[in-house]
Each structure stands twice: as C-alpha cells, then as structure tokens.
Amino acid sequence: MVMDRTAMKQLEAWKTSRNRKPLIIRGARQTGKTWLSEEFGRTRYEAVARIDLMNNERARSFFDGDLDVSRILRNISLETGVPITTDTLVLLDEIQECPRALTALKYFCEDAREYHVIATGSYMGIARHAGTSYPVGKVDTLTLRPMDFTEYLRAIGQGMMADAISDGTGIADLDSAKKDLRREAGTTLLDMAVGVSLCPFHHLAIILSCKNSLLTCKNYCKMVKGDAHVAG
Q1: Which of 5, 157, 172, 182 has the most CB within a 10 Å radius?
Q2: How far from chain centre, in Å, is Cα 64?
Q3: What span, in angstroms and rounded, lies between the C-alpha atoms of 11 and 40?
Q4: How far is the C-alpha of 118 from the C-alpha of 34, rounded, in Å?
Q5: List of residues 6+ apart from 132 with CB closer than 8 A
Q6: Distance between CA atoms of 204 and 231, rounded to whole angstroms?
Q7: pLDDT, tens digit, for every residue of 54-109?
Q8: What is the DSSP letter of 120?
C-alpha cells in the first residue's frame, strides 16, 4: 500500500522556496504529522535527524539556557547520530511539549535559514503557547487534516477515480459518485473512507488492507478506538 498525502506537494514547495522558514506542521492528534514529515525527509533528503520532545527529556534539555543554533544542532546531531548538513531534515517532533524549542525556531529563521527544520505539534498544545513563546512571523505553517476521500482512493489503488474527482471530470455529483463506487453488500468506497478518516493514522495500513469489507473495517476501528493517546 502506498500512502499518497496531498500535503506532500506543499512540503516540496516549502523545501524549494527562496523564502523558506522553519515549518510547523500542526493538526489534530492521529492525523499523521510524524509519518508525513519522516516520509518527506526519507524521500527528499540525504538524512533525517529527529528528536522526540515528548518522550526524550534529554532532548528537551537542548533548549535550556541560551538558544544558540549551532549548539542546538550539535546536540541534536550527537543525540541522533546524524551529521546535520543543508541536505538533512531536522525534525522536532511534538514541539508543544517544549516551549523553548518553539521559541528557538525564531533563531533558526534569523541565524540559520540554510538548514531545513520541521516541527510537528497538536493544535491545542501549540495554542497554549501563543503570545508567549510562539515565533510570530518567523515560521511557515501547514495544517494537516485526516486523510480525505481522494487520498483514500489513491491508497487503495483507485488513482484514476481520484483524478476524476480532483479535476471535476467524469463525475456529475456526489450522488452519482456513490452509485459508481458501490461494491458488494451495499458497501461503498465512500462509506469506507469515512470510517478510515475516524481511525488513528498509525492503524491505517491495517485498516486499508480491509478495503473489501466494511464490516471488518468498522470492527477494527472499534478495537483501536481507545488507542488515541499514541502520538500521531
């Protein structure tokens, strides 16, 4: 299964922008922020240096004291074992857990814009720090939402159908789309997509493999319903 998030195109535009600033990917939990940024780094950069600011207390300490970018990068490199160059994606995961790291993005923008830095965080967590440590005007932002219908179609190999919906050709309205997409036992891909969008992102690979059985998909979603505390 190939996961093709449309936000990847926005990340590619950010990477090549002449006015690139550190990027904050924000959104609800379980929408795939970590997966998206890691996949982007894996496929578009020489290396990824990722620190988890929720579970790694030592990584949070990198932002104590002064916010000298050279020192911070050196510590991240030592922690991850990844030499940091201009072709390395520096990933600050769960940045809402470290307000000083959020503030540090200002200095990455002002003093080290040649480095590519992405921070991920939940809506509510980042909002807690607005007005105190948030680097207003010094970051780019990208809002990540749950997988949409066309992304779901591409993930299960229905790329032509996704293209038809995206460019508005071949499908007159949503009602006709539902009829065109109907499957055995009255199951439709649209119904499946709704179920998938409500499940934690880290379970999507398993759920999408159930694409021929809405019942199986719904049962799996119920089984993992209580697992929303896992970082997305």
Answers
A1: 5
A2: 27
A3: 8
A4: 10
A5: 99
A6: 14
A7: 999 999 999 999 999 999 999 999 999 999 999 999 999 999 999 999 999 999 99
A8: E
Type of residue numbered 204:
L
Helix axes 189-197 and 214-223, enclosed angle (nearest 10): 10
- In angstroms, the CA 188 to CA 158 distance is 13
Residue identified by tokens 């050279």 is 70
Question: CA-to-CA distance for 224 and 229, rounded, in angstroms?
Answer: 11
Kindly state the tokens that stand for 88: 């390395």
**20-42 tens-digit pLDDT:** 999 999 988 888 899 999 999 99
| DSSP three-state, residue 88 | strand
Say whether pTM exceeds 0.85: no
For residue 116, what are the CA distances in angstroms to 20, 192, 230? 8, 37, 26
Report the 10 Å Cβ neighbour count for 164: 17
Q: Which two tokens stand for residue 160?
A: 């032509």
Backbone Cα Rg of the chain: 20
Q: Quote the tokens at residue 175.
A: 């009602």
Least Cα distance to 114 among 49, 21, 23 occurs for: 21
The DSSP call for residue 199 is S
What contacts 221, CB < 8 A, 6 or more positions away? 195, 196, 198, 199, 207
Side chain identity at 120, as an amino acid letter?
A: T
Amino acid identity for residue 35 in this structure: W
d(CA 192, CA 178): 11
